[in-house]
Design goal:
24% of the residues lie in helices and 23% in strands. By secondary structure, it is an alpha/beta fold. β14 (268-269) and β15 form a beta hairpin. α3 packs parallel to α4 (217-229). The N and C termini lie far apart (77 Å).
Length: 629
């Protein structure tokens, strides 16, 4: 039975259909007056195919699929199948083996270790976020505030019986918490279905399905709807770099290396023991492109953080000589991956104005965030991994030795304007025996938390968008563990940790209220060093300003354990400078050693500035002054 038009098959075969989720998998249809479901799957090398499910007793002989032209797509229509029905595809693969595979386009799955797909229509959710979507499409995220709370859905909070919060639970408590903390966005670690929970979602087995561990696709949509009602954007981790070898999923789907490369030098990831997509195959590129658009279209996400981009871009990524195959030009660049990423970024930008595409790219690949027309990859933002590593290496040093590493704090600004950078303090730095952020800070509890306030203050005051992994804001002492929730008792029992949490909240509030901190993140005119060479005293100072220069902030940072009661810093404008933020205040767990309600101009030059001011500067503190006209 022919269930697709020839034109539809041709477009899907040639890789021109960006909305495969409207065509393949389990689709509700009305045919010859009967309601039912069209089941379809791409398996061009299978000898035969059928669909098995709870609607036919899981009998492979009940509902055979027929080939649709020369597309490699098998399909059949079954009347009476309803939402919630469980199913798999039964294939006689190219080797003559009978195998059961889950639907690559499945919208919903049983909870692991079970792996049947579940018939589900994700196109009919009753959204109420049009106001948010309209505002997003009219905005420019690069010139807007962006502070992201990165999190793992299963381990943020747990119930008393150790069960993770559901999507329904999170739509209340999580939305309220992030709103109260002042973050502009939340970023979920991968939500697509994954059989192996300790993979944190990075080994995806169901690319089109929000994980069923926490609820249904509709409940996941309701969670995003709730975030939008609270004026909070939602970004999700997306993993197109690789997929696991689970027998029921994509690996050797029809008996051949269908989604991956046959040659392990191209098709296997040596670090993760996973398989690499064949980006040069039109159908595979189409599958991934459609998947990226699916999350924007059906779930109204506001951005994708693309995982492990470097592993996609380089054919020799984590490989020794002789373990990789050069491209057609003899180089190490994966030209097919470059083409795919550019196409996805182009389509997202055109179809979903105001959405963001964020690259986790750990090398110096040029022009990651530059326009495609300029030879770039077309991403909106790139994680600045160098900033994260340099800052954490600096902060873990004994303060008495920090002057040897002072350049680590200033170096990022030497290349900041080469890309649109996001400054991350991500989950990567609190796992695999690296300890917590608090655990990286030197000294006793009080000085450790002071340094943590200082680290966050630097992150928020320097140019670039912001990201903080959950737990950092409360001074989590233990390394993150996906099997445990955060140690919320810290903010219940310890006023110092409550102070840190309030500092992060107030940082977000201050950041959002001051246009100079986000409007010109990627314009060199928005930042000016005052003094970046006071290595002896371990003090930095700089100015942030907006494009119209109607707002000017002076930021002074003391990385030392010393209290400077009369620190002189240059200023370029005459007027009254008023202290508007100070991490040493007692409400943040500080000691209130420095108070500078307002300071008067000194008619003496300093730091190559015409004027100067004298301030009190507490140990491990960041202070911000506002020029009062």
């Amino acid at each position: 039975m022919q269930l697709f038009l020839d034109s539809e098959l041709r477009v899907m075969r040639d890789g021109g259909e960006s909305f495969l989720y409207d065509k393949l998998g389990a689709q509700f249809r009305r045919i010859n007056g009967e309601n039912g479901v069209v089941f379809s799957v791409w398996a061009p090398n299978a000898k035969s195919a059928s669909v098995v499910g709870d609607f036919n007793g899981w009998n492979p002989g009940s509902n055979p699929l027929s080939l649709q032209g020369d597309s490699g797509i098998w399909a059949c229509f079954i009347s009476g199948v309803s939402q919630g029905s469980h199913y798999k595809f039964h294939l006689l693969n190219s080797l003559g083996e009978a195998v059961e595979k889950t639907d690559p386009m499945g919208r919903f799955f049983e909870q692991a270790p079970k792996n049947s797909a579940i018939v589900w229509d994700t196109s009919h959710f009753d959204w109420s976020d049009q106001k948010w979507m309209d505002a997003r499409s009219g905005g420019n995220p690069l010139e807007s505030p962006m502070s992201i709370y990165e999190m793992h859905l299963g381990s943020w909070r747990k119930h008393s019986d150790a069960e993770s919060y559901s999507y329904k639970d999170l739509a209340g408590e999580l939305v309220n918490y992030i709103s109260e903390m002042g973050f502009t966005h939340v970023e979920f670690m991968p939500v697509a279905e994954h059989a192996y929970y300790p993979s944190w979602g990075y080994q995806v087995t169901g690319f089109y399905a929000p994980t069923s561990r926490y609820g249904t696709p509709d409940e996941f949509a309701a969670l995003i709807n709730a975030f939008h009602a609270a004026n909070i954007g939602v970004i999700i981790d997306w993993v197109p770099a690789h997929f696991p070898k689970d027998d029921h999923a994509l690996a050797r789907f029809d008996g051949t290396a269908l989604y991956e490369h046959e040659d392990p030098r191209l098709g296997e990831h040596p670090d993760w023991g996973t398989l690499i997509f064949n980006y040069g195959c039109k159908e595979v590129a189409n599958y991934l492109t459609s998947n990226a658009l699916y999350w924007f279209d059906r779930f109204h996400v506001d951005g994708l953080r693309v995982d492990a981009v470097a592993s996609m871009l380089y054919l020799d990524y984590s490989r020794k000589d002789g373990e990789w195959i050069p491209n057609k030009e003899g180089g190490r660049e994966n030209l097919e991956a470059v083409k795919l990423l550019r196409n996805i970024n182009h389509q997202v930008a055109n179809r979903y104005p105001g959405a963001v595409m964020i690259a986790e790219e750990s090398t110096s690949w040029p022009k990651v965030t530059h326009p495609i027309t300029d030879g770039g990859l077309g991403f909106s933002l790139k994680w600045n991994m160098g900033w994260m590593h340099d800052n954490l290496n600096f902060f873990r040093q004994d303060p008495k030795k920090r002057h040897y590493n002072f350049d680590k704090i200033t170096f990022a600004m030497s290349y900041h304007y080469s890309e649109n950078f996001l400054l991350p303090l991500s989950h990567d730095e609190v796992v695999h025996m690296k300890g917590s952020l608090f655990g990286k800070m030197p000294g006793d509890e009080r000085s450790g938390l002071a340094n943590l306030r200082l680290l966050f203050g630097c992150q928020w005051m320097f140019p670039g968008k912001k990201l903080l992994f959950m737990g950092g804001e409360i001074g989590q002492k233990n390394e993150w563990n996906q099997d445990c929730d955060l140690d919320w008792k810290l903010v219940g029992d310890n006023w110092l940790n409550r102070g840190l949490q309030r500092w992060v909240r107030d940082l977000n509030c201050f950041y959002r209220e001051h246009v100079s901190l986000w409007e010109s993140d990627f314009n060199p005119d928005g930042f000016q060093w005052v003094n970046c060479s006071d290595r002896e005293k371990l003090v930095l100072s700089f100015i942030r300003r907006n494009s119209s220069e109607s707002e000017r902030l002076l930021v002074i940072v003391n990385f030392s354990a010393n209290h400077y009661s009369d620190y002189i810093v240059g200023v370029d404008k005459w007027g009254k400078w008023e202290e508007v933020l100070n991490s040493d205040k007692s409400i943040y767990g500080g000691e209130s050693k420095s108070t500078n309600a307002s300071v008067e101009i000194i008619l003496e030059s300093c730091d190559e500035m015409e004027f100067s001011i004298s301030i009190s500067l507490a140990p491990f503190a960041i202070v911000v002054f506002h020029l009062v006209n």
